[in-house]
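Bench notes, bay 3.
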Amino acid sequence: MFINPISVTPMLSKNYNNNVAKTKNVHFSGKINPETEKNQLKILLCQDIWAEKLKVKLPETELEKETILEILQQRQKLDRYVRLTNERLRLDGQISYASRLLKENPSHPDLPQVLTEIKKYGNLDSTLKTMDKQINLEAKKNAPAIEYFKNIQKLEEEYSEKRLIKNSAFDKFWHKVQKNNININGQYSTKELIDIIANTEPTGTLAKTSKVKPQPTTKKQILSQIEKQYEQLLRESVDVYSGEAHHNKESENARQIINETNKETLKNFPDINKHLLKIYENIERKFIHKVDRLADTDIYPIGEIWKDMKNVEATMKKTMLEIDDLNSQLDETHENKKLQSLLSEKETKLEELKKDWIEGLNYSIKYESINRERMEDADRLSEYDYLTSENKTLKRHKKAFEILQNNDNTIPDELWPLILK
């Protein structure tokens, strides 16, 4: 069944929230305060913080040196926790791979070697229980260090939402880390890395690249900057597959973010409100025009698939929390058959939910590709790309699908939190 979920009805209402539309008392600034800059560095430097052997680049400013040392000192407390956790994940992966080969392809050349590796662990039930106890013990002993990195994760979510850090920054910074990694062969422990960084002078090149770009000084420059910000925010947040005719909430949120990220500057422009309002309305008309251009093209309603997947995601997150809670209770009560049985049920449920989500992912990617082909046939591809290429759900699905393709049609356990966030 084909439907036309992209409505010709104006998608952004004129009845805006007065508090958002009024910008008379809003000030605009591009300066980054020291705390924000340090938090941005923490987020960028922690991209592989749970790897056993960390990739570390030489600091290029005093602030980066201070931040790297702070992170490494917290990470050093968790070296054993990380090693045990990664070993547990590897063993789980080997067991899962061996089980699948035994069931589907017992003559596969990988099977003998995988079974040999697994046998080295002896009694698996006992080994896994011991590993879990050791991991839980390390987690309890070093709870403040774990909380430190959880707080950085929360900062990442907050800064991404407020656009205080862009997605492109992660790839650019990570490329720099990999290019200048001093631990390229994993030869240094965390303690050794701390010693190296502590005794190294910053190279100074980051000072040139991390400085804030020159800020706009005229009303025209400010309005141009705001125009780009608002358009990008709408492209990211407005979902033309949602079936919704109006997107007041998205436009209000975009204005609030702009107010937050540009405050405390240019107080000399008291009449800027009317110019901003005009910019907002012009961009919204641009959106409406592009939506209208798509209105006569029949497509698959993948928004319905996305709704189902979001419901599965919510249940998965709840189940994961329940599993964590049960593991904590078992760690305290040791052998408790009732809790163990309940834990087993929850873990089985989680695996089924993962299968359901992956099934939805496959449909999402398949039918979006078909929709794209239809838009191209109808000579509407440029409008379609404009309205969907920055869509957060679609981008997340494409990233998850790439992970799936690169891991033998599975998603490793350690990557699910990244996909579900």
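Next record in the batch:
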Amino acid sequence: MTPVTFILAAIGVSYTSWLLMRFIVWLDTPGASANRAEDC
């Protein structure tokens, strides 16, 4: 695996885990999801 491919894979994994975390937070608090998105 070349270093560029490894960096792209690491970015993809971190972004996917971030999206999954946001989705779980959105599922836990459907009413406050809009307000929480504006805070970030």
